[in-house]
Design goal:
The chain is built from 4 helices and 10 strands; from the N terminus they run H-E-E-E-H-E-E-E-E-E-H-E-E-H. It is α+β, with helices and mostly antiparallel strands. The chain has one domain. Strands 3-2-1-4-5-6-7-8-9-10 form a 10-stranded antiparallel beta sheet, with helices on both faces. A hairpin with a 3-residue loop joins strand 6 and strand 7. The longest helix is centred in the last third of the chain and has 23 residues. The termini are far apart.
Length: 226
């Protein structure tokens, strides 16, 4: 099933936790959890640590060539957003859908939401998802999961106790990437780095469309909460 089961296990669910604001006016961030609030001073708003310079490469060409013209604005918008060096506001909120938790970042330029990025952490995986907006609508989603070779706590001691040959090593993670292209809430095209290049079935794309839009709308709701 093209490793889709692994991907779905790592997908986003309901997002309902409190976070904080970062803005360029006071150059500070307030990070909240269920028990305490901490204020952290920062020198300036930083670009997202996730660099997707190679997101669009030769393997990212449309299988159906007629889609090229429709995908070009999506790709151009992705490059525009990732070229923004100074965001007006970055809003950060904690999310707790996995044992290790995670966070969501909302990127604003002059009051306009341009991008949302989420990170989810677990004992056996890490999931990064980035949502790109075009004229206020979902345009492109990049999801990258790391399936660890062993749980994070599985050190050399655990390895020996279990007569194993490997301890936790992030560099040995299995990496799965998905790229999803949207136009007017419709999933036009999706690519996976572990696929052979054949297009996905229409019924699968429809289910993916429903799932991704649902996750996106939950994040939008989270971003509007105080």
């Amino acid at each position: 099933m093209r490793n889709k089961l692994t991907y779905h296990i790592l997908t986003l669910a309901t997002v309902f936790f409190i976070g904080c604001w970062i803005d360029s006016e006071n150059i500070s961030a307030t990070i909240s959890d269920t028990t305490s609030t901490t204020t952290v001073k920062i020198d300036s708003l930083q670009r997202d640590t996730i660099e997707l310079k190679k997101t669009f490469n030769q393997e990212d060409l449309s299988v159906n060539k007629y889609l090229t013209e429709r995908l070009n604005p999506i790709r151009a918008n992705f490059k525009r957003i990732n070229s923004i060096a100074n965001w007006t506001t970055i809003k950060i909120k904690d999310i707790w859908e996995t044992t290790e938790g995670g966070e969501a970042k909302f990127y604003y330029l002059k009051g306009q939401l341009e991008k949302i990025s989420t990170r989810h952490f677990g004992e056996t995986f890490q999931l990064l998802t980035e949502y790109y907006l075009l004229t206020g609508k979902l345009s492109f989603v990049f999801a990258k999961s790391y399936k660890y070779n062993r749980p994070m706590y599985y050190d050399s001691t655990h390895m020996k106790e279990n007569n194993d040959t490997e301890a936790f090593d992030f560099e040995k993670s299995e990496i799965i990437e998905y790229r999803s292209y949207f136009e007017n809430r419709k999933l036009l095209h999706q690519l996976c780095n572990q696929d052979c290049g054949s297009p996905f079935a229409d019924d699968y794309l429809l289910e993916e469309q429903k799932r991704i839009i649902s996750d996106f709308e939950k994040l939008i709701k989270l971003g509007t909460t105080k």
